[in-house]
Structure formats: structure tokens, C-alpha cells
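dumping this here before i forget
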Amino acid sequence: MPHAVRWKDVLLAFAIFSLACAVYTFPLVTAPTRANRLDSPDALLNSWIVSWNLHGLRHDPGHLYDTNIFFPEKGTLAYSENLVTAALIAAPVAAFTDDPIVLFNTVLFGAFVLTGVATFILAYDLTGDRLAALLAGFIFAFAPYRFAHIPHLQLQLAFGIPLSLFLVRRIVIGTKPGAAAVGFALTAALTFGSSVYYTVFVATVAPVVALAELMTLDRSKRGAGVGRLALAGAAAVLLTLPLAIPYLDKLRSGTVRSLEAASNFSAGITEYLSSFSWAHALLPKAAEPLFPGFVALGLTIAALVARSRDSARKWCWVAVGGVGVALSFGPALGLFSFLYRVAAPYRALRVPSRAGVLFLLAVAVLAAIGLTRIRRRGFRRALVVIAAVECVAAPLPLRFDAPIYPAIYKDVEALTGPGALVELPLPPPEQFQDNAIFVYRSIYHRRGLVNGYSGFIPQSYRRAHRLLMGRNFERGLATMREEGVRFVLAHEGRLGPRMRRQITNAVDSGALVLVSEKPPDRLYAIPPTQ
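structure:
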């Protein structure tokens, strides 16, 4: 049976995980306005998304997905994670500052804490044991996997996974099912606003949890449980649909990943043995460290071998972890390939290894169950402390200087009138991550930008690269002018000799007009054709 979670326990968990987060993310808490990981293209992108969302939700929520990058494309936010939930977390702080570093750090800190609290709620619901629930929160919220992905806010915002599965349990069992159904619908929307990956994973394993809970009910009550689930699922779809429609449009237009690409980002045995924490110094290092910790594994084994009258629920979490492992191996084990063929959302996923998060959650829950089998209070507390120490990877490799914002951008901010901007040199499609710094800097001017960085490369970007970086530069400028591009920002320190000559010739012919100059950068206007 479920165990009621008291608000004072939730608040205690919030306080404990907040303190733990301050330690684990040190020195973030001592320098929230300076400490950052904005040396990564993905972090620059995510920082821009949060700032864009805060601006868009405030001024034009109906066109939130029509961002300023990849001009003149529409719906460009759907080329990556939308991070609407991240913006909501940052909103209280955004009322006082629009500093991208502070906003990013607010989301990062909040994501750790909320994930810990959500896991605490799920584990307490299963065990009725406060210490076991805290253990689960530490194992899942502060796993080494998290600290390998500091630049990826979407992977930190994992609270929707345990919270969704907690609410599925409550809906099936019938404990305040109305409130649970509303909560599930809201959580589904918040999860989609955090990570499309995590939404897909929740949708994959929620039926596993629901089936396990249905099997614990009397047969006469199962029909009602299925009905409640159907209604809650329908409400979740309706609430999530406004955020999901732009992604569905992209899928219908052919914006999909290939199975070959998924194979390149799949997990293997090495990932499940990998960790970056102090306590695991002898373990191998991999980009996707999925080792949950020695205490976590030991307690999971204890849970599995112990006899229990509630074994169905225990094996439910084994199944959840098994699904996570099978998906994380990508096409190699077949499950990902099968779902790729039958479920369209899987065609948008490039990194199957991220499904390992389900394994980490399952281990956290099973470890909590395992801890309940231990009666010695001192030993129980010691195991929780050791598990928490196993998560320590501090100090994080943070930098303390903000990304450079050249003086020429003040002139871009001062531009009046309509018209998009293109920054040269325009990186080739295979290196379009070099645009991330231009995307980040557009936080301050918000002008339409031909440059862009995201999870996908639109055809319009490939075309713009051919037009502007080819040998007929002036013809490319004329075409861009017809499509609404009015300004060119040339970073001359990065231009090759041929591009410099082409710009000089364009100025001499009147195809470009110098607006301002702050070496090594020059801002030009593309005048209207005569």
C-alpha cells in the first residue's frame, strides 16, 4: 500500500538536498554570478534557450517557438529541447536580473534539488521509510551521470520521471485519484518542457509501473484503475500538446534521426562501469557514466534476494531498470530499433545512452527497498552517508569568466528598423556548433539571425552557407536581402583572404555599406537594390 508523504518530510528533504547540492556543485554556490560551464556549445545554447523563453513568455508566448536563430525558419525552438520548465524555474530570479549566468545556475541548482525531492516522494511512497527515501534521492539526483552533464540542463531536469511514476501508482491504486490525475497531467507538461528524451522514457515505462500496480488490485477494481489511467493520460496529452505540436510538425517534415546515428551514441558495458566521483577513481571514464555506486548496487542486491510479500512491486522496478538498459544500448539489443519503427517520437532521439537514467532510478528505488531490510539504525545511517560520499565529484570544473561580448555588439543592439543579421564567416554545416557563441550573444540584441546552433541543421542554413561562403558573394548578399537579411557582421580576424577580398569588393560596388567598425569586427548594412 502507498504511504502518505507529509509536507514536513518534503520540506526536510528539500532542505537536505539543497545543502547537499551546495556541496556537490561547489564552487557554484560561492560565485553564482561568475561560475559557469559556458565553454561548451550546448551550454551556450541552453543558456540562450532559457533567456529566449523568459523573453518570449513575457512578451509573445504565442510565437515562443519562432526564435531568432536560423532566420527565416519558423518553429526553430523545436530543433532542440524547449526548456520551458527551466524558464519557469528561473522566472523568480529573472524578476531581479537577466544575467544569463545567474539564470543558468538557478536552473541547474533547482534541477538537482527538485530531482532529489521527487525521488524522495516516490521512494517514501513505496517504503514508508524516510531514511530510505533520502538514500534514493541522493543516488538518483546526484549520480555521477549528472556531473558529467553540467552543460545539459535538459538532462538535469529529471524530476518529472520519479514524480510521474509516483502519480501513476496513486492513480491506479485510487489514493486521491482526482488530484493524482491532475498532478500527472501537469507533471507530463513540465517533463516535456524539460526534456523530450525524458518524456519519451516516461511514456515507455509508465505502462510497466501501471501494470504492476493493477496486478495488486482485486480483479473487480482493475477496470476502474484502467479508466482512471486513461483519463489521466488523455489530460496529460491535452496539456502537453501545445508544446508538442511544433515537434510533431518537424517529424512530419522529415526532421528525424537515423538508426546509424543512434548506434554512435549508444551505451555499452563501459558506460555502466564508468564514474567521475572521488570514490570511484579506479573506475573507467566514459562520456556517459552510468555507474550508480557500490552501496546502491549492494542494497539493490539485498532487495532482490530478500523475501517479500510485496515482490511484484520490487520486480516492477527491475523491469523499469531493464527497459532503461535495453534502450540505452541502442539498436544493438533491438528494443530501441523496434520502438524507432513503431513510435514516431523515438525517431527524434539521437542519444539512446540517456535511457540509462531509468536504470539509475530503478537502482535508487531498489536500494531504498534494500535499506528497509536492515534494522540496525547506526548501520543504516552509515550506508546513507557512504552512498552520499560516493556521489562527490566537487570541485566542479567551472570557469569564472563570462563569454566574451565584443564591443561591436553594442552597435548591433543600437540598430533600428527591421532586418535580420548574418555573422561571417558562416560556419559550414558540419561545424555549425561554432555558431553557438553567436546564438548566445543574440540574447542581448534578439535580432533575427541567419546563424544558428541546435539539435538539427535546417536546409535553409545549408543554402545560406552555399550562397554566402561561395565564390559569388554579392549574388548571395542580394538573395539574402530579398529574404529579409539587412545586416552583416564580419569578424575579420576569422575571415580567410578570399572572404576579405569579397567583402572589400562588395563595399566598393555598393553591395555593402559600413555601419560601424570596432576592429577586428565590422558591421555592414545591405542596401536596398536600386
